[in-house]
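Q: I have 239 residues here and want to know how they pack in 3D. Can you give me a structure?
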Amino acid sequence: MTLPRIRQVVLAAGDLPAVTEVIERELGVEDPFRDEGVGHFGLHNAVYSLGQSFLEVVSPVRADTAVGRQLERCGGDAGYMVMFEVDDAQATRRRLESLGVRIVWDTTHPDIVDLHLHPKDVGGALVALDITEPVGSWRWGGPEWTALAPDPSPGGVRGLTVAVAEPDKVARRWAEVVGLDTPDDNALRLDAASQLIRFVDSDGGADRFVSVEVDLPGRSGAVEIAGVTFNRTDIGGQA
């Protein structure tokens, strides 16, 4: 495992129970973590472990939320947020400051620093940068991941496709923000090239991620969940 890497992808949904039912059936996961802390943002959620990665669904429980506005922009359920695990909180803050990227949510725990970035300063999706202690822990995945880095089950997120009005510009911006080399062909390679983010033209649609590549035991093929295409690769239970 090499940083930076995609650690969690977040879907925006109008009907949380309906989407979690599809996730559990099509991705073969169960028993999500429910984070009461998202109530601060007017949301409720469900977080599933996907091997080394996590999949979260968020849904509004009150009017005038950022998630609600994303649902309106997209005309329904859609990709919403991408959370990266990066290293060195001080260097990350300096990099964001030098780029003129505003931090709209900044919280620190002994095991994690969580920085949500202003979407207008990045583009494509809401982006968060998280610095973990120990590396591999993930508080947002639940108690078993809080200040702990257990051996993950097989699989995980291998990539994303992000639809934006200016793919080349946004690809470069994400590379700068996450701390990567200049992208080739509007694509970012992370975690020793085991993860890939592609940027494509949105054809006038709202900025969002439109597909997720995911390795799963016992599942294969494409399925749509909350307006996002999940391209599943069956890894046969192998690590």
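Q: Anything worth noting?
A: DSSP finds five helices and 13 strands in the chain. The domain at 5-234 is CATH 3.10.180.10 (2,3-Dihydroxybiphenyl 1,2-Dioxygenase; domain 1).
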